[in-house]
Amino acid sequence: MGLLQQDSTVSKIVFNTPGGATTITLGVAAGIWLLLSSLKHISNPKIDLKTIPSPKGAYPYFGHLPLLGEIPSLQFSKWHKELGPLISVKMGVKQWISISDANLAHQILGIDTTVTANRPHTTFLCDYHALKDNGIAGANPSTQWKKTRAATLQILSPRNREHLDKLHGPDADLLIETLVNTTARDGSVAVSDPLHFTSLNVIFATCFGRRAESVDDPVFKEVSYLMNQTGKRSSPAEEISTFLPVMAIMDILFRKKKDMHKFIYERRNPAFERYIKASLEEDVDCFAKSLLEMEDINNHDNVIVTLADLIIAGTDTTAVMLEWSMIILCHYPEVQKTMREEIGKFVSEHGRLPTFDERESVPYSISVQKECMRFRPITYFGLPHEASQDIEVNGYLIPKGASIVCDMRALHRDPALFLDPDTFIPDRYVNERSKPMYTSANMGPEMRDHYNFGFGRRVCPGAYLAELEIFNVWVRLYSRCLVEPAKDAFGLPVYPDLDDIYNAGITSKPGSSTLRIIKYKDALL
Ligand code: HEM
Q1: Which amino acids bring their CB within 6 angstroms of ligand 1?
Q2: Which of 303, 442, 453 to mutate to test the pocket of ligand 1 (most atoms within 8 A of CB)?
Q3: How, if at all, do strands 507-510 and 501-504 pair?
Q4: CB 217, CB 224: distance < 8 Å
Q5: Where is heme bound in this sequence (predicted)?
Q6: 286 annotated to a ligand binding site
Q7: Counting atoms of ligand 1 from 1, which one is nearest the CA of 321?
Q8: To pair with 470 at 20 to 30 A between CA atoms, which of 370, 374, 421, 480?
Q9: What stretch of H or E contains 97?
């Protein structure tokens, strides 16, 4: 791990990984803005720091924003190839430090690194969604945040596995039935909604002790609306005045803050108050109830935001992972066949499907899961962290206030970590890094399988639940069904383009996800 030395002004992170520093290519032409903004730190008599390489062509004031294109992370990945694993990108008036190397990411964002655990301030996410520093995802570390995160980890951890498994098993069965029946009826099925319904139900039931009946259930419709709105409003495009303060005038003209206020106080909060009230009236165990009983963290705002964080962070992510995996695997029927045989072997020996605790008996299927996550990461940049003070990284300066992001695409295609990284290799993980993903997410860089769950003190607290859900769907889907591409009017397969990516703000979704889910005539259990 990186060695962290702190004094009152600068935190110093020193590389101790061979090659870590040497792979950094010095910037050919650091942007004028970056140079100027760095000078005030370089002028600190204690240090003489290098400027982090920055791509050419930044515009005055707008910085690199006009160069980003529709999928900014593709541009970031190109810049990383050119300039090395640590780059500085000017996002309007904000500085983003992007990392494409796992060791470096761990050194800068690792668990022992308290100076990078903050979240950058954005108007909607921090002031409105988080009701100013409440909940988990949008709050900065504080005693309340620590206790709330610990309570969440408790409820989502393997210690609660029996409860979570019981909740999810029937939903996974229902999902497969829906996908199969819709295909039989309509010829194909748009898999996104049913997948979202399934993941929402698990986390909704965990939080409130009840579930939605179907995608037409008003609860599902309302929560989907609240989630989509929150996702949309927190995307960089919607938060543009954070990056270009001059655009604040547009916010005033379009009464944006008034609109955010209305959404949170007239739609989001009343909905969550209703869900909490209903769960208190029912005789059910749920996280909302436990949270309300916990001293110090049971104030109204913290309870609402924590529950909203879980519902939002826990639904889209898992659903999108499963969506991508189905899109990928419809291109590889032979991989599906091998998984079917592997799971089938377990079924014929035990007369039932494997449970999550028995996943070691289906190593190929687990490897395919991980490879899907590596091949198409679910987020572009994870969630940004913020430097809460000046940080020295091997002679480079990350200034206080800079946002720190990881280029997930570049990170997962690092040839130093992944042989032939641009190729989908289903058995890549069969003999190595076979630990559960949630364990791996909390380990050092050399032990991690992938980096989708983020880093350090902010690493995803829902990784165990996500993995459990993915497993439950996986063994049912691939033992019972073949995932095929949809067909055109002539009955020919229309293979989804794996490079057709829809920019959904924080998550990276497939452009289209209409498929055919065909149940085998001799389907297993
Ligand atoms: C495949 C599924 C998932 C992926 C890829 C994923 C990924 C992530 C990432 C990248 C972060 C940011 C980590 C960082 O800042 O370094 C995060 C944070 C978070 N995730 Fe997940 N997540 C998934 C599922 C879930 C689930 C199922 C839940 C809960 C039910 C959840 C709850 C959260 C919360 C509350 C945070 C905020 C943590 C904090 O700010 O301290 N996630 N997740």
Answers
A1: 136-137, 149, 156, 203, 309-310, 313-314, 317-318, 321, 378-379, 382-383, 385, 452-455, 458-462, 465-466
A2: 453
A3: antiparallel
A4: no
A5: 460
A6: no
A7: 1
A8: 421
A9: strand 94-99
Task: Say how far apart CA 502 and CA 261 lie, in whole Å.
Answer: 28
Q: Which of the four pLDDT bands, split at 50, 70 and 90, describes residue 9?
A: low
CA of 181 to the centre of ligand 1 (A): 32
pLDDT digits (tens, 9 = 90+) for 24-45: 222 323 332 333 333 233 345 4
Q: Are 244 and 93 in contact (CB under 8 A)?
A: yes
Atom 6 of ligand 1: nearest residue by CA position: 453
What is the whole-number distance in angstroms between the Cα of residue 152 and the centre of ligand 1? Answer: 11
Q: Give residue 354's identity as a one-letter amino acid code.
A: P
Which protein residue's CA is at the shortest distance from atom 3 of ligand 1? 317
pLDDT digits over 375-416, tens only?
Answer: 999 999 999 999 999 999 989 999 999 999 999 999 999 999
**pTM summary value:** 0.90
Spatial strand order of the sheet with 3-6 comes to 3-6, 10-14, 390-393, 396-398
Beta pairing class for 10-14 and 390-393: parallel
Terminal C-alpha separation, the chain: 46
